[in-house]
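Lecture notes, structural biology module. Today: joint structure prediction for complexes of two components.
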Amino acid sequence: MDILYKIFIDPFVQMGGAPDLLVQTLWEGLVGGVLYALIALGFVLIFKASGVFNFAQGIMMVFAALTLVGLYEKGVPAFLALLLTIGVMYALALGIERMVLRPLVNQPDIILFMATFGLTFVLVGLGELIFGGEPKQMITEQLWLPKGAIDIKMLGGLVSLQKIDIAAAVIASIMVAGLAVFFQSTRIGRALRAVADDHQAALSVGISLNQIWVIVWFTAGIVALATGIMWGARSDVSFALEIIALKALPVLILGGFTSIPGAIVGGLIIGIGEKLGEFYWGPLLGNGIESWLAYFIALAFLLFRPQGLFGEKIIERI
Amino acid sequence: MFYRETGQYKTSYAADMAVFPILQDRIGVGLMLLVAAVGIPLFATLFPATGNFFLQVIMIPFLIFALAAIGLNILTGYTGLISLGTGAFMGVGAFACYKLTTIFPGVNIIVWILASGFFSCAVGVVFGLPSLRIKGFYLAVATLAAQFFLQWCFVRVPWLFNYNASGAIEVPERTLFGVALTGANATAMTRYFVVLAIVVGLTWIASNLIHGRIGRSWMAVRDMDIAAQLMGIKLLPAKLLAFAVSSFYCGVAGAMMVFFWYATGAEPEVFSIRQSFFILSMIIIGGLGSLIGSYFGAALIYIMPILLGWLADVSGLPIGAATIEHLRVMLTGVLIIFFLIVEPHGLARLWQIGKQKLRIWPFPY
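The predicted structure, tokenised, for the full assembly:
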């Protein structure tokens, strides 16, 4: 009985008892979720446009952040470094399209997945080779990102919001809105949607697949850079972030591989669920359950909706 | 000219269905086994310094990784279920073996190595259950749940490592007929023989499984599971059996890794997601759905970096160990992409093509 009480009643009693803590936990979950959603967004962009399950998205994020910090440490001014990093991401997109995607066109999905897997190794090796493996500090002040915390008095307690987290949430929202506009009302955006819908039909009306792939990978690279800056500001920039980036996978299967709203909603569910679970139910199991809880939440959803919350219905034919 | 099957008539179905239907293949496999069982140990006794290094650093881990790769290949290559949890399943084997041998120290360690596979097997079946409903990449993520959950268990459940302060498992000394098999006193040679015997035996079993009814049902599921179901293959038993057998192999490989390769002990970090990726890249490069490919992949991915390090040593270039490590990671990635582009079916397919060429040589067709 005691254990049942601890699982089903006690956490809610705690939540009711200290609503300020609950708000704090929810806020942290929300910010984490936004960042997961951003990584997942990069996946979705690429999956929609080229059908590639881009395993390297997480490492692209680390690589982008590392390039930015590495360039700054080499004496390049912060904003020039930012521009140069965007340039590097473009070069990366071009390189990937030329050397990986183009020779592998028309191969089965699993082969392309494995190729991005190889890409992960290349980027890890390259990043460590050029910038070294030790963790680095993200340059937040130099990029005019706010520091410190705001304390809000509410519900009989203090809720402290890190300014960088607020900035992250704002930037993420701007980014998602920008992408939505880009997709809905520009020429390239419409071409992207056409490619996502049907490769052959898009080709037949004169859309260049190769060009679209470069654009998509470049967009995903910029999303990766933004995510990298935000994650990097919360913790150090190092290859340990790669493991965090893997958390975007449950977000992805929760939201569905092809849905941008799905990535965002999924990110929020995972982020908040994970923090609440860790804070209120974690002590029961000996803490640290954050490392796997996200996967189990996603798994539970999957058992009921195998295509994710917003994914297209899977129709299988023989 | 020499590799030709002309004149080898098969007079029974059994002969026609044999694993190695061609005489030259049988001779080749026999020779390879002879080299592994007699040649390499002989070399090691003649040149003890290089020989022991060769056994400890190259042969033992190569065989163990090959076994793990076979395990993953059964699941991913033959049944088409992508798994990113290999490292964790290896860990289950290692921790199970450690617990078993500390609770029942009287029973022979080889028995426990094989028995620990069954624990891994049970865990694998539990995490394989969602595979009936979840497919493709979605399943890959589901196996990540296994990876992270089990890894968390290895760190957070102190019972698993007998409440050690270090959190690592330590290998006790175990003997067979008075010869130390594990622990600090076991020679590389003894450990090599044990590993070789287990790996060869399990490969033989895997080969028989794959060529039989079970293996064929796995391949049918891989090619299209709905079609397989319509042909009367029960999906749940087929997929779960694949998970069970695969985890068994991985578990045994993991147990051997700690007990016969590291020989003194291992940290739980050994069974991290990196290990899973490492083994996955072996089967991609080696060839999905091929036993010999598992060996090729293990050889290439594991031995290549050692060769690279050795080359850097010999050439005398002032390259640091860290740089070599980074280059190694990068080269692994480049190789994966390269092999996918030239031959998406891996080294095993190149081997096949080579054999075919040899069969008709010196004629073009």
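Point to remember: The CA atoms of residues 170 and 265 of chain B lie 4 Å apart.
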